[in-house]
Amino acid sequence: MSYFCIHGLGLAGSTVAWQLWQRGIPFSIIDHGQGGSSRVAAGLIQPITGKNATLTWEYDVFFKEAENFYRGIEITLAQNFWHPLESIRLVPPHAEKKLLPKLLATSHAPYVIGEIDSPWTGMRAIAIRGSARLDVAAFVNATREFFAEKGYLIPPFSPQENDTTPILCEGAEGLMLHHPQVWPHRCAKGEILTVHAPSWQQTRLISGGAWLVPIGNDCYKIGATYEWHEVDEVITAEGFAWLTRAAQNLGGADFTILDHQAGIRPIVRKSMPIIGKIPQSNHIVFNGLGSKGSLYAPGCAKQLIDFLIHDSPIQPELDAAKYFSV
Ligand SMILES: Cc1cc2nc3c(=O)[nH]c(=O)nc-3n(C[C@H](O)[C@H](O)[C@H](O)COP(=O)(O)OP(=O)(O)OC[C@H]3O[C@@H](n4cnc5c(N)ncnc54)[C@H](O)[C@@H]3O)c2cc1C
Known about the structure:
Elements: E1 4-7, H1 11-22, E2 27-30, E3 44-45, E4 48-49, E5 54-55, H2 59-77, E6 82-91, H3 96-103, E7 112-116, E8 124-134, H4 136-149, E9 165-168, H5 171-176, E10 188-196, E11 205-208, E12 210-216, E13 219-223, H6 237-250, E14 256-265, E15 274-277, E16 284-287, H7 293-310, H8 320-325
Parallel strand pairs: 1-2, 1-9, 6-11, 9-16
Antiparallel strand pairs: 3-8, 4-5, 6-8, 7-8, 10-13, 10-14, 11-12, 12-13, 15-16
Helix pairs in contact: 1-4, 1-7, 2-7
């Protein structure tokens, strides 16, 4: 059996590490220990997203996989990461004609509870079921602690790295450095706020343009900007102003800012990940989780390890061999 080395311990690398550990397959991990979008992500998992209220690809399958996976790790680590949520999709007047028929169509019916009275002035509000939030930073940090304590983390270029099969889970850093080869990426910077707002008393995820999500103890995440020009992990005054306005519009005027962060979403083509072996190379990759890493990472990690160990097929939409051969 191959001895694997995971490069990068964000969501992709963490889910791969658990898959290998649960199957008793030997491996090691190399990670910078800093940066990466998983430490910033809000961890939202939603069946309907974006300005066009698009249905998320293969939602039910990946949701079940994700819920079972994270719940299992919660038991192993005696820590809570997975939070089911009801959500509200706001529809502004200019988008009513386009979005309301779509949201109320039969295609969206499994997830749409229906229209509710809206306290958001001028906005229609549609209640949606089946969302969740993963506490991504807590999951990734706890994973790192678990495997570090057991001696799985090794320094780069150490002798143990030789004779291993690398699994590259390098996120935006790998895509932007074109490692292990050129990826035509669309990595997007995102900024996010954490606020304390005892008066809001909101238990649901509110979305529409921006979003607001409760994270407990009267705290909320507000997000997120998208920026394709200056793609770095540096917070900006423009991002801060946009997020503050979003907090006011979605929650109210009364809040205290606790944190302001920036990260880079690893995007290859929308939020469709790429997993498997790059043709004519020995490189195994898992990247391109985009804005939907929390949902797709567990199912993708399982497919990747099934492929590496049992030669099981990877879904064509995700398969690196197909992606790199066109
Ligand atoms: C503002 C913002 C909000 C977001 N909100 C959500 C959300 O609500 N829901 C959601 O699902 N997703 C969200 N995301 C996206 C989410 O962060 C990603 O889908 C996911 O975290 C990507 O995980 P990853 O492991 O591929 O990459 P990363 O988390 O970036 O991890 C890659 C790791 O590899 C390390 N690394 C890179 N190269 C090397 C190397 N050569 N050697 C060693 N280590 C290396 C890096 O240091 C890093 O630790 C958001 C992202 C941002 C920026």
